[in-house]
Design brief:
The chain has ten helices and twelve strands. By secondary structure, it is an alpha/beta fold. The strands form three sheets. The protein has a six-stranded mixed β-sheet with strand order 8-9-10-5-11-12, sandwiched between helices. The protein has a four-stranded antiparallel β-sheet with strand order 4-3-6-7, with helices on one face. Helix 3 crosses helix 4, helix 4 crosses helix 6 and helix 6 runs parallel beside helix 7. Bound molecules: adenosine-5'-diphosphate (ADP) and magnesium ion. The site of adenosine-5'-diphosphate has 12 residues, from strand 4 and helix 1. Pfam families: ABC_tran. InterPro entries: AAA+_ATPase (IPR003593), ABC_transporter-like_ATP-bd (IPR003439), ABC_transporter-like_CS (IPR017871), P-loop_NTPase (IPR027417), PstB-like (IPR005670). Keywords: ATP-binding, Nucleotide-binding, Transport. This is Phosphate ABC transporter ATP-binding protein.
Length: 271
C-alpha cells in the first residue's frame, strides 16, 4: 500500500491511498465527541467506487458512530460534536449549508435489525420515491419491481406485494429494507451489521447480494463477523477505541497485518 500525504487545515496527514479507482467518500482527521466522550479520533479513511469497505473491531470501538457520521445521521444525537471533515464526492458534508437531505438520498443506510414500516411490501418500497414526488402508478410499479429485483427478493414476494411486510421472515425483511434503500437510487450504501439478526442462510443471501450490488454501488459494511469481512470486502478498516489501527486490502489485513493489535484481534485474542 502506498501512503500519500495531503494538506488539511495547514497540517500534513498521511491518508491511505490504495489505487486509482475514484474515491467516493473520504474522511480527513475526522473526530467526534458524545459530550466529553471522544468516540472517534483522527479518522483518515477513504471509500472507493464499486468496492465493499468493511469496518471491523470490538464492541464500543466506534464502528456504528463512524458509519452514521457518513450520512450525518449521527447528528440526531444532540450532544454530538465533530471536527475535521468527511467528504462525499469531493465536498465536505459537514460544511455550513451542505444539503443533508440530499446527502441522505445519495448515501443510504441499512440497519442491524430489519426495520420495515408496518405497511405493505409495495408501500415500503414506494415510500421514498413518493416522498420525492413520484405519483405515477406505472413509474412506481417499475421502481418497486426493479428495487425488489436488485435486492434479490422479487421472486419471493411478487405475488404478495399488498401483504404487510411484517409477515415476512427476518431475512426477507432485511432484503425489503435493502430494496427500500435501492428505491431512492443511492450511490453509497451503508450497512451496520446487516446480518447479525439473521439465520445463516439469510446471511449468505445478503452476503451474495452485497457482492452483486457493488457492481453498481459503493458499500460500507460494519461487521462483527470477521469471516464475513474476509468473504465479501475489498478493503478492511480495523477500529479500536475510536481509532483506525489499520486500513488495507482485506487480503492483507487477514494474512499479513502490519500492526500487532490487528493481528491479535483477527486471531481472536480479544474482542
Ligand atoms: N447515542 C449515544 N450517546 C452517547 N454515547 C454514545 C452513543 N452511541 C454510542 N456512544 C458511545 O460511543 C462509543 C462508540 O459506540 P459505537 O459507535 O456504538 O461502537 P460500536 O458500533 O463499535 O459497538 C461508545 O463509547 C458508546 O458508548
Ligand atoms: Mg455498533
Amino acid at each position: 500500500m502506498v501512503q500519500i500525504l495531503t494538506e488539511f487545515n495547514g497540517t500534513r496527514h498521511a491518508v491511505h491511498e490504495i489505487n486509482s479507482k475514484s474515491i467516493v467518500m473520504q474522511s480527513n482527521n475526522f473526530n467526534l465527541w458524545y459530550g466529553s466522550n471522544h468516540a472517534l479520533k483522527d479518522i483518515n479513511l477513504n471509500m472507493q467506487e464499486n468496492e465493499v469497505t468493511a469496518i471491523i473491531g470490538p464492541s464500543g470501538c466506534g464502528k456504528s458512530t463512524y458509519i452514521k457520521a457518513l450520512n450525518r445521521m449521527v447528528e440526531l444525537v444532540p450532544i454530538v460534536r465533530t471536527a475535521g471533515e468527511i467528504s462525499y464526492r469531493g465536498r465536505n458534508i459537514f460544511a455550513n449549508g451542505y444539503e443533508v437531505e440530499e446527502l441522505r438520498t445519495k448515501v443510504g443506510m441499512v440497519f442491524q435489525k430489519p426495520n420495515p414500516f408496518p405497511k405493505s411490501i409495495y408501500d415500503n418500497i414506494a415510500y421514498g420515491p413518493r416522498i420525492h414526488g413520484i405519483k405515477n402508478k406505472k413509474i412506481l410499479d417499475e421502481i418497486v419491481e426493479k428495487s425488489l429485483r436488485g435486492a434479490a427478493i422479487w421472486d419471493e414476494v411478487k405475488d404478495r406485494l399488498n401483504e404487510n411486510a411484517y409477515g415476512l421472515s427476518g431475512g426477507q425483511q432485511q432484503r425489503i429494507c435493502i430494496a427500500r434503500c435501492l428505491a431512492i437510487e443511492p450511490d453509497v450504501i451503508l450497512m451496520d451489521e446487516p446480518t447479525s439478526a439473521l439465520d445463516p442462510i439469510s446471511t449468505l443471501k445478503v452476503e451474495e447480494l452485497v457482492q452483486e450490488m457493488k457492481e453498481q454501488y459503493s458499500i460500507v459494511i460494519v461487521t462483527h463477523n470477521m469471516q464475513q469481512a474476509a468473504r465479501i470486502s475489498d478493503k478492511t478498516a480495523f477500529f479500536l477505541n475510536g481509532e483506525v489501527i489499520e486500513f488495507d486490502q482485506t487480503d492483507t489485513i487477514f494474512s499479513t497485518p502490519s500492526d500487532q493489535r490487528t493481528e491479535d484481534y483477527i486471531s481472536g485474542r480479544f474482542g
